[in-house]
Design goal:
Largest sheet: 4 strands, mixed
Order of helices and strands: HHEEHHEHE
Strand order of the largest sheet: 1-2-4-3
Length: 138
């Protein structure tokens, strides 16, 4: 099995297309990087996505109140599920969970696109491992 460096994977055409598309379709996404332990896995490349909390709140129309701020301090800035950035009462209709599924579907859609030449594809699919929050907006 071929071994790759982080730089080789992140410089791959498919990786770059996915990253650019996610940032375009979801304005709260600021970055996508391989996880620190990505090479511990053989069937997938796991990535962490950095999201701007102010832009995510705006995108989801979630209020910035004391309750959500206290909650966020409790869970931290690195979580496995996008919905964990907010108290569960904010995701009653599944909007936040559905958004995460939609983002993963976008990644899969690029991977399966016939317009992506085989020689430019990664050797395995990308999958979201975690979410990192920031208060930055750019």
């Amino acid at each position: 099995m071929a071994r790759y460096t982080t730089e080789e994977i992140e410089d791959n055409y498919e990786f770059k297309v996915i990253k650019r598309l996610l940032k375009k379709e979801y304005p709260f996404i600021l970055d996508m990087k391989l996880t620190d332990n990505w090479n511990d896995y053989n069937s997938l490349f796991f990535v962490d996505i950095t999201a701007s909390l102010p832009l995510l709140r705006e995108y989801l129309n979630v209020p910035h109140d004391i309750r959500s701020s206290v909650y966020l301090r409790t869970v931290g800035s690195n979580v496995p599920y996008l919905s964990m950035f907010f108290p569960s009462s904010y995701d009653k209709d599944g909007l936040i969970s559905d958004l995460a599924k939609k983002i993963q579907a976008t990644i899969t859609r690029v991977r399966n696109s016939p317009s992506l030449p085989l020689e430019m594809k990664l050797s395995r699919p990308l999958n979201i491992s975690g979410w990192i929050s920031t208060n930055q907006t750019k």
